[in-house]
Specification:
single chain, about 170 residues, alpha+beta, 4 helices, binds zinc ion
Length: about 170
């Protein structure tokens, strides 16, 4: 009888021990890292984006040059991500690069943009993604104007526009 009691005691203390180990704060690390980010499944993106937006933002497509709604756009305001609405570029840094895509020499702040190496063409390019939702925006090149010398070449489809509010 005593032996059986001891046996149960071992099992119970075993359960308690593992309970403590698995409840250590480590398990929250991943959530913290993704805090405030827009994370959706592929199906959720398909449901909330137009087919054209899905193709470019989620499948890294490129719109035809000179066809986008913003390459000639000159209003003052902020260009936001078409996927999640985060602020990406100010009209103050937009310029006419002659490429047929909206071009900026600087993002609204560095942490809005994520860069990745893109080897899909024979020459390596730097892909630009929305840091909040991971949507594909375009590419950045070193042939831009002063003061940065950078050209952020962005698909109109990846952007929406918020006009500057009337003062
Ligand atoms: Zn986004």
């Amino acid at each position: 009888m005593n032996k059986i009691k001891k046996y149960y005691l071992y099992i119970i203390s075993g359960i308690l021990f593992f309970g403590i180990v698995y409840n250590t704060p480590n398990s929250n690390k991943k959530e913290e890292k993704n805090m405030n980010k827009t994370i959706k499944t592929d199906k959720e993106w398909k449901d909330c984006l137009t087919p054209e937006e899905y193709k470019i933002l989620r499948e890294k497509g490129t719109e035809m040059a000179f066809t986008g709604k913003y390459y000639k756009h000159k209003e003052e305001g902020v260009y936001i991500c078409a996927g999640c609405g985060d602020n990406l570029f100010s009209s103050k840094t937009k310029y006419d690069s002659g490429t047929g895509w909206p071009s900026f020499w600087e993002p609204i702040s560095g942490d809005k943009i994520k860069e990745e190496i893109d080897k899909s063409l024979p020459f390596v390019r730097t892909e630009i993604l929305c840091n909040n939702c991971g949507g594909h925006l375009g590419h950045v090149f070193n042939d831009g104007p002063n003061p940065t010398g950078l050209r952020y070449c962005i698909n109109s489809v990846s952007l929406d526009f918020k006009a500057e509010e009337d003062k």
